[in-house]
Every structure is written in structure tokens, then in C-alpha cells.
Design brief:
By secondary structure, this protein is α+β, with helices and mostly antiparallel strands. The protein folds into two domains: 62-247, Creatinase/prolidase N-terminal domain (Creatine Amidinohydrolase, Chain A, domain 1, 3-Layer(aba) Sandwich); 252-527, Creatinase/methionine aminopeptidase superfamily (Creatine Amidinohydrolase, Alpha-Beta Complex). Helices cover 40% and strands 14% of the residues. It is built from 18 helices and 17 strands. The protein has helices at residues 2-19, 24-32, 41-47, 67-77, 105-111, 133-136, 157-160, 166-169, 175-182, 192-197, 211-223, 229-245, 252-279, 285-300, 362-381, 388-405, 413-417, 510-527; strands at 82-86, 92-94, 97-98, 122-127, 141-147, 185-188, 203-205, 303-304, 309-312, 333-338, 340-341, 350-355, 461-464, 467-470, 484-487, 490-495, 498-501. The strands form six sheets. A five-stranded mixed beta sheet has the order 6-5-4-1-7, sandwiched between helices. The longest helix has 28 residues, at 252-279. It is globular. The N and C termini lie far apart (57 Å). Bound molecules: glycine (GLY) and manganese (II) ion (MN) (2 copies). One manganese (II) ion binds next to loops.
């Protein structure tokens, strides 16, 4: 057993050297000063013996059937080049406590992975030798996943490393397990530097994800006589852009996962509405409702896809009210923007606006219906071949018309809608549609011409989310409008036959919302 530990320790040292932690080492050593862990050889030997083998169960991920096509498309865009896609490192919260790790979305997309196992891992697309039979058969790259081996009971890391040691964090996947889960070739992360440096081919890296890996790539570029930093940044940005744009059209697996996220989000809203009647008037009752949603996100999925917005009364016009410190008052409008991220790390993005006591007043109905009509106009503009800009303009026209009808718009509708006008945007200053997927604002690194200006295609999943935001301090509107915010946000799949509301199961028509609230309030009363 002692021999095995020595070998593993050598690997560990090599890995440490490959990752070059440098300046962080002093800080890590100081954090270790609070440890009274025994150092004796007999302790180390005792800790390394007498454990039952704990082989974790390995299941092939469903996504493994989809990643080969994604990788092939990426490879075809960059033939002959080495592509480096890091998972990223955990972010330190303080000292030796990290935030929960979530890999970078490009890494998730191309590997199908998405657990704490993968912190520090790197996907490399290694270019196929152009003269090889594989290249002649059309293969451009081999996908290689560089990962840390398991820190199980054959290693001292088992009990010494609070980040990877299985004594600390439970069973993790290593090379064998990750190969089985993903179908990808796996290698020890200790060999990454050599693998990147081996032949001096042109490299691109997703540079923002892991500065250590970007550093290694730049080092290799220097040593292979390729020092033009500006050119490299351009190369790297192209890879980032491509990896973002490739995610625009979802495959069948992705659509299925987003549907699951939407279904889980419905359960989260149900739980909020069960809690709502008993929360009204209580201190920090926005937080009570946040807790009700977030509990479901952990039960049903990985967590929330973004910080939950619970905005009652005058908080509702604050676009990203995430403090949620307010009191939910009676007879107010309550805006809730929330989404569950499922275990595959796809998220929903849903907003509903509720009358806190369960019934809309006539005035609230008038405002709410304007937003609903605006959203429907956006949906009708969403066609294969149309653009996000078409959705935007359709939503905005309804908003401008209603504001004019109500005597709020200071100019006529056409003047407001003209590029020189835009006065209506005072009450809807944000965008009304965005891609949705692994990131709530998916594909965000795409170029303008691939996003706003690009034709909508089957397979795209996006939100439509107009609103009206009447701030409490807005002196340009009658007093009764002040302190009201309404947003209605749904998730849409574009199909060959037109758009589909994939969140149609979450009520939004006025009578449906009231019935839903009554049903959930009754359920909540029964459970109390
Ligand atoms: N929840 C963020 C957004 O709606 O875009
Ligand atoms: Mn959204
Ligand atoms: Mn939202």
C-alpha cells in the first residue's frame, strides 16, 4: 500500500506543478495552520489501510448521445487547430470555503458534464493528423478530457485535500468514471501541459474561464515561437463566439431538459402561492416566498438558474430586485421572476405577476392585460425567418399604444416608436426576448448579427417578457400608477410549424391566475 501512495504522490506533485498555483500557496499554507492533523508516518499508513473498495456506480449520461455531434460541429469550424475548453476553478468564498462549483457552460455543452467533480478539468480537441485514415474519413479532432484522478483511499489526498479528497467531499468521478459517463477519452490533468505543447500547432482557448489554463496555453505559444498576443486574443474570442452561437439551436435532449426545468419551476410557483396568504404583512415576507421557491429548486433540480426576484408593490418596477427584503402587502401587485435549474444545468426563466389578495382590481386588470397583449403580439411575430427585433417591435407597439390610450405617453404612438422618439421605453427600458438554455441569458457571447439580427430558426428556445414598470418616484405619471410593476415572461420553443409556449402549463390569463391562486391558497391552508 505504501508503494501505491508514493506513486500517487508523484502524480500529485506533477499535477501541482502543471497547475502552477504560485502565489496562492502562501495563503493555502496559512489556512492549514489551523489544522492539528497528525503528521506521523504511522498515521498516514493507518489511514491508508483497511478500507473497503468504494467503486461509485457509473451510468452513461443521456447527453453522451448528443455530444459527438456538438463536438463534430465545433471541430469542423477549426480544422487543424487545438481547442482548449476549461471547466474553470471553484471561486473562493473565504479562506478554504468555496462557492458551490458550476462548470463553464461551454464545457458543460461539449462534455455533458456538470458536477463538482469537474472543477479544474479541461476538454481538449486534439487535431487529427491530416494524412491519417481518420482525417480522410472526415474526423477533424479527437476529444480528450483532462481530469484529476480520484482522491480515494489509495491516496493521501483522500484525507488531506478538502477540495478533492473523498474523506471530505464523498466519492468523485475520476478518469475511468468520466470516460464511462461521457464516452470521451480521458487523461490525467498532470499531463495537460505536455499534451498542449507537443507539436506547436495553432491553439485557441476559451480564455476567460480559467486563468491558469490560459496561462499554460500562452506559455506554450511563447515557447513555440508564436508570441503575437493580439492575434491570440482574436483567435480565442472567435472560439468563444462560436461556442456561444452554436448553442442557439437546441437538440432534442436540450429541449427535453428545458421542459423539465419549466415543469419544476411550475412546482416552485405553486409552493409560493401556497405560502402567500400567510406571508402577507409579515416582516421580510418577500424572503419567505423566495425560500418557498428556492426549496423546490433544490428538491427538484440543482438550484435556481439565477437569483429569484420577489418584488412586491413599489419593488416590482425595479427590474432586478433580488434583495427581497420587503414586506408583501395586501392588495398589491407582486412580481416574481424565478427559474429552476435542473441537474443537467438547463434553466427555465418565468415571470408572473399576482394580485396579493388573489383578485385583480379593475385598474390592475387593465394594466396586466396590456402586458399580456404585448406578449401575445411578440409571440405572433415570432416566426421562422423573423428576428428577435421583430418580436421586440411587436411587443413595444402594444405598450406604446396602451400608454397613449391612458394619456401617459407625451407624444403620439408613431413618434414614440420612431428611433428618434422611444419615449415609451421610460416604462419598459429592458429587452423583451433572449435565448435560454444552460445560461439564463444563453448564447450571450454571440455577435449582434447572430443574435438580434439573425433569423429565428427551429430549435431555438427563448423568452418573451414584456412589462410595464411605473416607478414610485415617477412624476410623469398619474399617482395611481406609481409603484406598480408588471412583467409576464414565458419560454418559447420555435418549431418548423411556428412557436410553442413551453410554459403554457403555468397560468397567466386573469381568470386562470385567480383560480390558480385560490387553489394553492386552499392547499396551503390545509397544510398549516
Ligand atoms: N430573469 C432574468 C431575465 O428575465 O432575463
Ligand atoms: Mn428573461
Ligand atoms: Mn426572468
Amino acid at each position: 500500500m505504501a508503494d501505491v501512495i508514493t506513486e500517487q504522490d508523484k502524480e500529485y506533485e506533477a499535477r501541482e506543478a502543471a497547475m502552477a498555483p504560485g502565489d496562492d500557496q502562501d495563503m493555502a499554507d496559512r489556512v492549514n495552520n489551523r489544522s492539528l492533523r497528525p503528521q506521523s508516518q504511522s498515521f498516514v499508513e493507518f489511514m491508508s489501510t483497511g478500507w473497503d473498495d468504494n467503486e461509485p456506480e457509473i451510468e452513461r449520461y443521456e447527453s453522451a448521445a448528443y455530444t459527438p455531434a456538438r463536438l463534430a460541429a465545433l471541430g469542423a469550424a477549426f480544422p487543424g487547430e487545438r481547442l482548449v475548453i476549461p471547466a474553470g476553478q471553484p471561486k473562493v468564498r473565504n479562506n478554504d470555503c468555496d462557492y458551490k462549483f458550476r462548470p463553464d457552460s461551454a464545457f458543460i455543452y461539449y462534455t455533458g458534464l456538470g458536477e463538482d467533480y469537474e472543477a479544474g478539468s479541461v476538454l481538449v480537441l486534439d487535431p487529427t493528423d491530416l494524412d491519417s485514415p481518420e482525417a480522410k474519413a472526415g474526423q477533424t479532432h479527437t476529444a480528450q478530457l483532462f481530469v484529476a484522478p480520484r482522491a480515494n483511499h489509495y491516496t493521501t489526498d483522500f484525507f488531506e485535500d478538502p477540495h478533492y479528497g473523498e474523506y471530505w467531499v464523498g466519492p468523485r468521478a475520476g478518469l475511468k468514471e468520466m470516460a464511462a459517463m461521457t464516452g470521451l477519452e480521458t487523461h490525467d490533468i498532470a499531463r495537460l501541459s505536455d499534451a498542449l505543447a507537443k507539436d506547436g500547432v495553432r491553439m485557441r482557448v476559451i480564455a476567460k474561464t480559467d486563468p491558469q489554463i490560459t496561462g499554460i496555453v500562452n506559455e506554450v505559444r511563447l515557447t513555440t515561437g508564436d508570441p503575437d498576443r493580439v492575434e491570440h486574443e482574436g483567435d480565442d474570442n472567435k472560439l468563444l463566439e462560436f461556442a456561444s452561437e452554436q448553442r442557439k439551436c437546441k437538440d432534442a435532449y436540450e429541449v427535453g431538459e428545458i421542459r423539465k426545468a419549466v415543469a419544476a419551476t411550475k412546482l416552485g410557483f405553486d409552493n409560493i402561492l401556497r405560502k402567500l396568504p400567510s406571508a402577507i404583512g409579515k416582516p421580510r415576507s418577500e424572503r419567505m416566498l423566495e425560500g418557498a421557491f428556492n426549496a423546490i429548486s433544490r428538491e427538484e433540480g440543482n438550484e435556481v438558474g439565477y437569483d429569484t426576484i420577489i418584488a412586491s408593490g413599489a419593488h416590482a418596477p425595479i427590474l432586478h430586485w433580488e434583495r427581497n427584503t420587503g414586506v408583501v402587502g395586501d392588495n398589491e401587485l407582486l412580481l416574481i421572476d424565478a427559474g429552476v435549474e435542473v441537474d443537467s444545468l438547463y434553466t427555465a426563466d418565468i415571470t408572473r405577476t399576482f394580485p396579493t389578495n388573489g383578485k385583480f382590481t379593475d385598474f390592475q386588470k387593465r394594466l396586466y392585460q396590456a402586458v399580456l397583449d404585448s406578449q401575445q403580439a411578440g409571440f405572433e411575430a415570432a416566426k421562422v425567418g423573423a428576428t428577435y427585433s421583430d418580436i421586440h417591435h411587436a411587443c413595444m407597439r402594444v405598450i406604446a399604444e396602451r400608454l397613449h390610450e391612458w394619456g401617459i405617453l407625451p407624444v403620439d404612438v408613431e413618434e414614440s416608436l420612431s428611433p428618434e422618439g422611444q419615449q415609451h421605453r421610460r416604462w419598459l427600458a429592458c429587452g423583451v426576448a433572449h435565448h435560454l438554455g444552460l445560461d439564463v441569458h444563453d448564447c450571450a457571447q454571440a455577435r449582434y448579427e447572430s443574435y438580434q439580427g439573425a433569423p429565428i430558426e427551429p430549435g431555438m428556445v427563448f423568452t418573451i417578457e414584456p412589462g410595464l414598470y411605473f416607478r414610485e418616484d415617477d412624476l410623469m405619471i398619474p399617482e395611481e400608477y406609481r409603484g406598480i410593476g408588471i412583467r409576464i415572461e414565458d419560454d418559447v420553443l420555435m418549431t418548423e410549424n411556428g412557436p410553442e409556449w413551453i410554459s403554457a402549463g403555468i397560468p397567466k390569463q386573469i381568470d386562470e391566475v385567480e383560480a390558480w391562486m385560490a387553489q394553492m391558497a386552499a392547499e396551503g391552508a390545509q397544510n398549516r
